[in-house]
Amino acid sequence: TGMVTLDPGFGNTAACRSEITYIDGDAGILRYRGYPIEQLAEGATFAEVCHLLVHGELPTPEQLDELTARLRDNAAIPAGLRDLIAAFPVEAHPMASLSGAVNMLAAFHADACDPADPAQVDEATIRLLAQLPTVAAQIHRRATGQDVVEPDPSLGYVENFLNMTFGPTEGGVDPLLVRAMDLLFILHADHELNCSTATVRVVGSSQADLFASIAAGVNALSGPLHGGANQAVLEMLEGIQRVDGDVDSFIKKVKDRESKTRLMGFGHRVYKNFDPRSKQIKKLAQQILSRQEGEDRLFELALQLEEHALSDQYFVDRKLYPNVDFYTGLIYRAMGFPTNMFTVLFAIGRLPGWIAHWRELRNDPAARIARPRQLYVGPKERAYPGRS
Ligand code: CMC
Known about the structure:
Elements (H helix, E strand, L loop, with lengths): L20 E4 L4 E4 L2 E2 H7 L2 H10 L5 H13 L5 H9 L6 H15 L9 H26 L13 H10 L8 H14 L6 H10 L5 H12 L7 H14 L4 H9 L20 H14 L7 H14 L2 H5 L7 H11 L6 H21 L26
Antiparallel strand pairs: 1-2, 2-3
Helix pairs in contact: 2-17, 3-6, 4-5, 4-6, 5-6, 5-10, 6-7, 6-17, 8-13, 8-17, 9-10, 9-17, 10-17, 11-14, 11-16, 13-16
The structure holds carboxymethyl coenzyme *A.
């Protein structure tokens, strides 16, 4: 106990020591386990990054083979969960369906729920990584009224996910889309104590099981200030397009406090410089969108918004730069995902980070139950008036 410090939103409170991810927000640096994000984006696959985050080192070729095989062998979800997803309302938001389904994974994998048993934690880790894409794809099929496509053991992790989501196509899944999706998953894989990861740790600190903790992370991710921003950015761009692409008026509105409008996909608690992920993502957006016929009007609007904001004193003074969510939605849209699926894709990418943090917490001798303090500012003691 002792003196309690007020720190809303934990802007200045380190809740743990961590060996997973390093961020220098002023310099725009991001590293997973010491490896610069640019190098991982260039050379690694998502499966390698999963191993790196969860186990601390890049996999040896044998370890990678084993991980790949286990992910493949565990990709099918329990039949009961498949039936449950088929009964979800067609109009449900996919993030609501996702958190419900992840909660139910605990019920269907009761043999992997003991947080104190390392073998069960290992099983839970694999089943989550293997089955989240299957769950996500089946949620998409349900929401779009299409039949489920079962996992195909002949396909790689990301290829399989795209195949289950969009259905088999002649000639197989486009390799450029597979590479793009893999890269986006890598860029989302961890970001130290963001809102959802902090949530996973808070829930895990009560010794709740891994599935329960991850389901809580999914819910934290859904909000528009966090993972939900990728959906919000696209809706913002569409809104601007509806008023004839008037970027000037929109920026003016953002700067007017009364309007309570934010430039979605801009700003970050830690980065006060370019988010290194957003640089990679902008390049990827250019690459993917240049394959389409004609210009992409929403991409043009996004470029204009960025240019405007970066030269406007309001954004310069507050060090507001595009974040990871600014350009991702445009890529997902070009791939064929509906807007309300965007945050589900973020969740698939962030999953290894959530798991790595939960495991680090479980192995941290200094870890205690998360229990912040408060400063009470309510009424002083007063007497209940009683009944007359
Ligand atoms: N548009 C306009 N003004 C902004 C924005 C924005 N996007 N972001 C911050 N500001 C202003 C804010 O009004 C405040 O101004 P003032 O000092 O005059 O009151 C100042 O900048 C500091 O903002 P803050 O809200 O104290 O910053 P925070 O660290 O609490 O919030 C944030 C960080 C990411 C929630 C916020 O920047 C934001 O709401 N951005 C838009 C939503 C978004 O893109 N979220 C995705 C975050 S990145 C990855 C992820 O988690 O998904």
